[in-house]
């Protein structure tokens, strides 16, 4: 099968540091190639792939010193795609709804994985106009906000089976990985660290839009708890960071569509303590691979019970449900359904 994967241009594929969507696109692209398919990746020029790379810009947008207009380069990417679209059997978009007016007028088969939140009111209006665009959710929770649109499947993210080593022994610190932003709940993680007296290591990026929140709200909390702020980390650092942790705190207070770090953590054997929001109940098996909680007090209580979790069960759960191979097979099934009915 000849497949085009169309990635956002904000991060390299895979990202050098933070970035879930582009990391998943990389795993999917390389797994499809490994399974014998011909894949062309539309992404930034610094991306890494064994397939063909078509790039509208040399370097991913976010880490460039001189800021550029993202819309310009995404439009150029779509133009490059449509110039050669007849080369492909199917187009797999990961750029949200940007391509909808173009794809709506094109006979080439396509699908769009929606990686973001769908609880925004304007999206209902958008999908009233594009209600026949085939879309894929990354959790069942994510699709619940727009249950009537043209869902053609739900595909959980997956990681390569050998990417994360298994760490059989519990570490001594709590881990937080993600973004510093109100919806990610890092303030909750800090409060849990304060109440338990456990060290909390925060590996997170701070976007420009969240710098004031970080400075005014989060930084003062560091003085009240045993916190170490590490900043953004890449894949190699993340493996050890997660593997040597006592538990991953995932204290989200928004409808998290997936949360890749949860399966990354469990792949290392490290259990997850996550808030009952979004996809968390679909990813974490309560009492077996971690705990699903509703409050800070419950989080403190469950941390004291974390030794009841068998770290082997955490890794087994990922190998059974969240591998790149399973993800690719699920997408291939959807591709075939769209192409051949």
TrEMBL record:
Gene3D superfamilies cross-referenced by the UniProt entry: Glycogen Phosphorylase B
InterPro entries in the cross-refs: Glyco_trans_1, Glyco_trans_4-like_N
Signal sequence interval, chain numbering: none
Matches recorded under SUPFAM superfamilies: UDP-Glycosyltransferase/glycogen phosphorylase (SSF53756)
Domain Glycosyl transferase family: 169-295
Entry-linked CDD domains: GT4_AviGT4-like
Glycosyltransferase subfamily 4-like N-terminal domain: residues covered: 18-130
Pfam annotation, one family: Glyco_transf_4
Superkingdom, natural source: Bacteria
Protein name: Glycosyltransferase family 4 protein
Organism the protein comes from: Candidatus Methylacidiphilum infernorum
